[in-house]
Structure formats: C-alpha cells, structure tokens
Design goal:
With about 270 residues, the protein is α/β, with parallel strands linked by helices. The chain is built from eight helices and 16 strands.
Length: about 270
C-alpha cells in the first residue's frame, strides 16, 4: 500500500467518545506517516440531534430521513462544520499534521441537488418534500487534490449548495462515495460500528470478507444487506463505479482494525468490481 490515496468515511457513535475519537484519528493519521495521502469525510448525526434539541427544534423523520427545514439547516451546518469538523481538525493538528476543514460548499467541491423522496400511501405513489435534504449532483475534486499536493489532510463534511446557492444536508455515506469515486482513490474505507457485512445480521461469525458489486442486488433481495448497511453498501458501489479501486467496510470503533490495514489483513468486508 505504499504511497496510496485513501479516503476514510468517519461518523456515527464512534465520534461521541472523545478518547476513542482521538485513537481513531491517530490510527488514520498513521497512514500519513507511512507516506500515504489521506482524505477524511465525516457526518455527525448525534451532534445534529444534540444541537437541534438545544435550539428547541423538533426533528421530523420520514422513512428514516431527517426532514431539514430552513431553520434547522442553519443548526445542521453549525453542528457539522463548526463543532464536529472543528474538533477533528484540532485533534489532527495536535498529532502533528496539517488538517484543513471543509464542507462541500468550499471551492464547490460538491454541487447539490434537492432529493426527491417517493412514498407509497394507500397504494398511491407520491413525492414527499424533505426540505433541504440533498443528493450529490456533481463533484469537482481539484481543491482536494491541491491540498493533498501541499501535504494537507482535507477533512470534509457533508453539506453542499446547489447552483442557486441553497444549502443542503447530504447523507454522509453517499457524499463520501461520490468523492471517493471522483478522486479515484486506491481504497475507500467506511468506518462503522460493526465488523462488516454479515450473512446473518446478529451473527458475528457470518462476516462476509469479500463481495463483487455484481452480487449487491442479490444480497439485498435476500435481506443480507438491510437497514443501516444499505447506504454504506450503496456508497461503496457508487465509489467503485465512479473510479475507486477498492472499497472496504470495517469496525471504526476498534482502532486496531484500522492499524491492521497496513498488513493487508483480511478484515471487514471488501467490495470490488
């Protein structure tokens, strides 16, 4: 893995424990010490929830998607770009590296489009407005490449604007997958809270170590891929189809799993073309 470009997607509950967060970032930054180029993309759902509660803004969920009003969007950005991004930057800089905090808005790295959500009610398909929830319309990785060239670690959160300047909150996994593809990374690593994809959701012994993207539809139909694993696998598929060389889902709450990537250890679930 000498001199590779690696994008880490970091988020979820692994961000809420400060000590664990420091360990994870130290493990990620160890790749930089070995001569690799590192990009970090992050979400921060728990911090959005906390910030909205402090602001007395009630969260409404539609089919698992958080509806984001104009008022809520201001606090979503405050949580992701201010609190979470700033915290990650501080820790990485303390480790002796040079991190730059970004969102998709910076340099128009990502241009967003409004997500159109479909819902079936009484047998009728209808469009549901999720507010300022978006999808990735396009990616321009030139700013990221410029920062990498000058030895910085870009740390990017999943907010972007559309062509009219309206801001959107984008699913962190989808956001990361599009960027990984645009950068044609050597490895796209999703850090989650399980060891990877399992044939049986609650059986750690049923971990699947490797799949081809051609198997994804079949695994969805058999409910092997379900729940929160769906956007992660979809994210890997997007990354691979758009140019990433390998995607892998590992347990980000176990820093040793990140460290063992150096040894090409068979950990997590590798997804390939």
């Amino acid at each position: 893995m000498k001199g590779k470009l690696i994008l880490f997607k970091y988020g979820g509950n692994a961000m809420t424990d400060h000590h664990l967060k420091s360990q994870i970032l130290e493990s990620i930054c160890s790749f930089k010490d070995k001569g690799h180029q590192i990009v970090i993309v992050h979400g921060g759902g728990p911090f959005i929830k906390q910030t909205l509660e402090i602001a007395n803004i009630e969260s409404e969920f539609i089919d698992g998607h958080r509806k984001t009003t104009t008022e809520a969007m201001e606090y979503v950005e405050m949580a992701l770009k201010g609190k979470v991004n700033g915290s990650l930057i501080s820790i990485i800089n303390k480790l002796g590296h040079r991190a730059v905090g970004l969102s998709g808005k910076d340099g128009q790295i990502v241009v967003a489009k409004k997500r159109l959500h479909s819902q079936t009610e009484k047998g009728q398909l209808k469009q549901v407005d999720l507010g300022q929830v978006g999808d990735v319309a396009s990616v321009d990785p030139s700013l990221i490449k410029l920062l990498l060239k000058h030895n910085y670690i870009p740390v990017i959160t999943c907010i972007a604007s559309d062509h009219k300047g309206l801001d959107y909150n984008i699913n962190g996994d989808m956001f990361a997958g599009h960027i990984a593809g645009a950068l044609t990374v050597d490895q796209y690593i999703i850090l989650t809270d399980v060891d990877g994809l399992r044939r049986e959701k609650d059986d750690p012994a049923s971990l699947i170590s490797k799949i081809n993207i051609t198997e994804i539809d079949r695994l969805k139909k058999t409910n092997c891929i379900q729940g929160g694993m769906i956007p992660k696998i979809d994210s890997c598929q997007i990354a691979l189809e758009k140019g990433a060389k390998l995607a892998r889902i590992i347990n980000g709450t176990v820093p040793e799993q990140i460290d063992s990537l150096f040894d090409n250890a068979t950990i997590g679930t590798a997804i390939h073309t």
